[in-house]
TrEMBL record:
Annotated organism of origin: Mucilaginibacter rubeus
Keywords: Methyltransferase, Transferase
Domain DNA methylase N-4/N-6: 28-243
Family, per entry: Belongs to the N(4)/N(6)-methyltransferase family.
Gene Ontology molecular function, alphabetical: DNA binding; N-methyltransferase activity
UniProt-recorded name of the protein: Methyltransferase
Length: 275
């Protein structure tokens, strides 16, 4: 067993189950990762044994920690049923660009991905408010029934603030919209997620200084999001069978290390500028 400092702020190369087994108990505030879905014929898209994965998540997660996993289609169901006791709800990310054009004449283009939320206790939750049209006071009638028991008259006024909903898009007042990764610059991984999406989730479900684990970090999107939001991160990547182009293998470990170092410099400079 190694110490937490052996992993903080670093990307480890290898099998995530083996690497997580070396980490100390109850050291993670938030798991945020884009696991391989196992739904394509890509050589990198091989599912991780979910029962073994949950064994490590249970051991590593703090009592009030949270696990956020992206998914789609059949893999969504597999993830939910792999730990139904912890599963609480899902968010839906509406993407700016729909892939799956080879199947366009056979099925709808896949415009969304699921974001599954799991936790065992009472996790951190900071709702990211949006802005809508203010409305005046309203009065509810006294009732003896209701989803949450009896309640009496109550006057409400709203200044336009809106609680977030479970669809992440921003064409309506209460939707939050994040473009796909290539809109932020060169995307080097086939399933790369946007940093802005990771930042939103990290702000919502963790406190500053929290430890965020991404055990399938790919090109490092979610650890970058953690850096930008003032969180600590632990990254793991198997680094096998990844090609930027068909004949150009990509070393994700070297790529992530350079990317993280650059982001750390930018973050430290931003802190100094605000002092």
């Amino acid at each position: 067993m190694k110490s937490l400092d052996d992993f903080l702020g670093k990307v480890s190369e290898g099998d995530c189950l083996e690497i997580m087994a070396e980490m100390p108990d109850n050291c993670i505030d938030m798991v945020l990762t884009d696991l391989p879905y196992g739904t394509t014929q890509n050589p990198w898209d091989i599912s991780i044994d979910l029962q073994k994965l949950w064994k490590q998540y249970r051991r590593l997660l703090k009592p009030n920690g949270i696990v956020i996993l992206t998914a789609h289609g059949r893999f969504t169901g597999e993830l939910i049923m792999s730990n139904p006791g912890w599963y609480k709800y899902k968010l839906v990310w509406i993407k700016s660009k729909a892939p799956n054009f080879l199947q366009a004449k056979r099925q709808p283009l896949k415009k969304h991905e699921d974001i599954l939320v799991f936790y065992p206790g009472s996790p951190v939750y900071h709702p990211q408010m949006t802005t809508g049209k203010p409305y005046g006071a309203r009065t509810r009638s006294t009732t003896k029934s209701g989803c949450y028991g009896p309640y009496g008259n109550k006057e409400n006024a709203n200044n336009g603030a809106r609680y977030p909903i479970d669809v992440i898009f921003l064409e309506l007042d209460d939707w939050i919209y994040f473009k796909t990764a290539e809109c932020e610059g060169k995307a080097v991984h086939p399933s790369q997620k946007p940093v802005a999406l990771g930042q939103y989730l990290i702000r919502t479900y963790s406190n500053p200084g929290a430890v965020v684990l991404d055990n399938a970090c790919g090109s490092g999107t979610f650890p970058v999001a953690a850096i930008r939001e003032g969180r600590q991160f632990i990254a793991i990547e198997q680094n096998k069978n990844i090609f930027y182009l068909k004949d150009q293998p990509l070393d994700l470990i070297s790529y992530c290390r350079a990317r993280f170092a650059q982001e750390q410099v930018i973050y430290q400079q931003s802190i100094q500028n605000h002092e």
